[in-house]
Amino acid sequence: MAEIRLQELAHAYAPGAPHALKPLDMTWRDGGTYALLGPSGCGKSTMLNIISGLLHPSEGRVLFDGQDVTRLGAGQRNIAQVFQVPVIYRSMTVGQNLAFPLVCRGGPTPRIRQRVEAIAERLGLTPLLKRPANALTADQKQLVSLGRGLVREDVAAILLDEPLTVIDPQMKFELRRILKEINAEFRVTMVLVTHDQTEAMTFAEEVIVMNHGEVVQAGRPRDLFERPATTHVGHFIGSPAMNFLPALAVAGRAVVPGTGLSLPLPDGLPTDGLVLGFRPEHARLSGASGTMQGRVARLWFEGLDEIVALSHPAGEVRLRAPAGLGLAPGDTAAFTLRDTALRLYRNGRLVA
Ligand SMILES: Nc1ncnc2c1ncn2[C@@H]1O[C@H](COP(=O)(O)OP(=O)(O)OP(=O)(O)O)[C@@H](O)[C@H]1O
């Protein structure tokens, strides 16, 4: 188990090619849970493969517990990696698959059996231990892949590259819980790559949001939700996404015309490219008068809540409201906003 430090790390796949991973510095605490979150092609797998040693970075260093491992191959790093597509040894039983990493390292047989049984129990694989791995469903095969990553007690970290994609939705929730339990019990550093915000936000203590090869924000799930560092993060995290409305500078404040939405402008801030943003969850419908009034454009259900899309000359905003308020498209509605809910962005970046 190890602290992982990325120092001035960057990667281009060919000399002179644009960076697939732009320069970054980051430290992941020993025993922590982390998620790399972002759309397809943003550089998540590139970063993970550099950490596992499958890929050598074109710039910078990777340190495990202070030791430079940048030029070491995957086999020398003591990392367990689980991929999107299950990797199993088809000619072996489930038990033999789970035992394989330990057998390769030559541990005592009783200890191996004990560890295999413990991990199988955690993953619900006990009844399948003697089955040929070949005969399993895709879900079960991925559980075996995960189990092979978890069975070793000496790994520096477990890297999970979209491992839940092939897993049945019911099972996903259960597996995230199991992974967290294993992390709490064995304090093994875990890094999950995903493009699914719910998966990232419910699994990790710290989420690293990436876009176009760049880390745009790294922080606790609550901080990403409350204070997105960019409008991209505000769009990408949360459902519905954060609301953003263009603002003008008026008498030292950023103001959305025709609404009560405004914030003081920080001293010296240029006044172009201003946008005010707030979360749908922080607005409360308030009858016909409030911070902003608009016309109900659309309504739809999300779980027990109703999402109300309000149209206004400044733009459309979405609010989350308890179902059964009796609103209909075309109605006039208004909302008030929680005091601390408003954020100011300039050219897409948080300024206040
Ligand atoms: N072997 C490669 N050679 C050249 N370019 C590559 C290679 N692998 C990835 N890339 C490019 O690097 C960028 C980042 O890709 P990467 O696979 O790391 O993104 P990702 O976020 O993991 O995407 P996905 O979720 O689709 O796997 C993309 O523009 C991709 O086309």
UniProtKB/TrEMBL annotation:
Keywords: ATP-binding, Cell membrane, Membrane, Nucleotide-binding, Transport. PROSITE patterns: ABC_TRANSPORTER_2. Belongs to the ABC transporter superfamily. This is Carbohydrate ABC transporter ATP-binding protein (CUT1 family). It comes from the Bacteria. GO terms for molecular function: ABC-type ferric iron transporter activity; ATP binding; ATP hydrolysis activity. InterPro entries: AAA+_ATPase, ABC_transporter-like_ATP-bd, ABC_transpr_FbpC, ABC_transpr_MalK/UgpC-like, Mo/tungstate-bd_C_term_dom, NA-bd_OB-fold, OB_MalK-like, P-loop_NTPase. The lineage of its organism: Bacteria, Pseudomonadati, Pseudomonadota, Alphaproteobacteria, Rhodobacterales. It comes from Gemmobacter caeni. Residues 4-237 form the ABC transporter domain. GO terms for cellular component: ATP-binding cassette (ABC) transporter complex, substrate-binding subunit-containing. Pfam families: ABC_tran, OB_MalK. PANTHER family: ABC TRANSPORTER ATP-BINDING PROTEIN (PTHR43875:SF14), MALTODEXTRIN IMPORT ATP-BINDING PROTEIN MSMX (PTHR43875).
